[in-house]
Design goal:
310 residues, alpha+beta, Beta-lactamase, 2 domains, five-stranded antiparallel sheet, three-stranded antiparallel sheet, 12 helices, 45% helix, 11% strand, globular, binds 6-diazenyl-5-OXO-L-norleucine, acetylation, EC 3.5.1.2, Glutaminase
Length: 310
Amino acid sequence: MIDTGPLDVISAGLAEVHRLLLPLTDGEVASYIPKLALADPQDFGLALVSMDGHRYQAGRSAVRFSIQSVSKPFVYALALAELGLDEMHRWVGNEPSGDAFNAISLERGTGRPANPMINAGAIATTNLVPAGSPEERFARVLDGLGAFAGRRLDVDEEVYLSESASGDRNRALAYLMHAAGSLRTEPRAAVETYFRQCAVRVDTVDLAVMAATLATGGVNPVTGRRVVPEPVAVQVLAVMATCGMYDAAGDWLVRVGLPAKSGVSGGLTAASPGRFGLACYSPPLDPTGSPVRAVAALREMSGRFGMHLM
Ligand code: DON
C-alpha cells in the first residue's frame, strides 16, 4: 500500500510515474478562456499528501495555476457545512448528469441542476454560501479554500478577467437557473463570484493537501485544523466519486476507483479516504475536459499501488 510503505518508495513511485508519462503528447490546452491557452503543455507535476501531513512531489509541482473546477467540491463542502444535506438538496441534486461540464441542467419539476460538480450546479452552490453581499461571499469562499489548502490563497486577476470577458455560457446558465427558481441570488453577481472562485491560484501540492483534508474526514493534515465536519467530508467524497469526472465519471470509477475532481486549467485532485490526497497538474485536456497526463497518472498509480476502493 502506498501510504504505509517506506517514504522513499512513495517518492520513487511518483518520480517513476512522472518519467513514464512526461512524453505523452495527447490533448489540447483549454482556450475557451483565452488566458488559459498560454499554459505550458510540458508542465507536469505530481503530489501526494499522507494522513500525517507528509508532502511528496515529483516534476513541476510548484507551478501555480488557476484552480477552475477543482474548486467545486471544496466550495460544495463549505456550503454543505452551513446548510446541511437536506436543504442543500432542495437547490442542487446529487445525480451524475452524464453530460458535459458546461451543459444546461434544469431538473424537470424542480429546476435544480443535476449536481454541484457541473458548472450550473457549482454556480448555484457557490451562491448558497451564506453572506450579506457578493464580496463577503467570495471572501468566505477564499478563506475556506485556503483552510483546505493550509495557506492563504489569492486570485489570478488576469484569469478572472479573461473568464469574465468570455463567460457568456455560464452567464446564460445562471439566468436560466434564476428563471427556474434554483439560483438564490442575482445572476450577474452570482456568476462573477463563481468566476473569481475558478481563478483562485494554487499549485499541485495545494491540491493534494486539499484532497487529503477530505480524506482525513475534514481535518487538514498539515495544519491540524478542522475545516468541515466529518459527515460533510464523507458526503463530498461520495459526490466526487459519482460526478467529479463529469461524463467520464463511470469509466473513471471503474479504472481508477477514487473520488476525484478535474479542472480545465489542468489540475486534478483525488482522495483515498483514510490514506492520502493525491494531485496532478498538466494542461493538455481530453475531450471531457480532464487533463490527459493526470488521468493516465492516476490509472497507473491505482494499478501499481492497489488504490482502487472497490
Ligand atoms: O466555468 C468554467 O467553464 C471554468 N471556470 C471551469 C470549468 C472546468 O474546470 C471544467 N473542468 N474540467
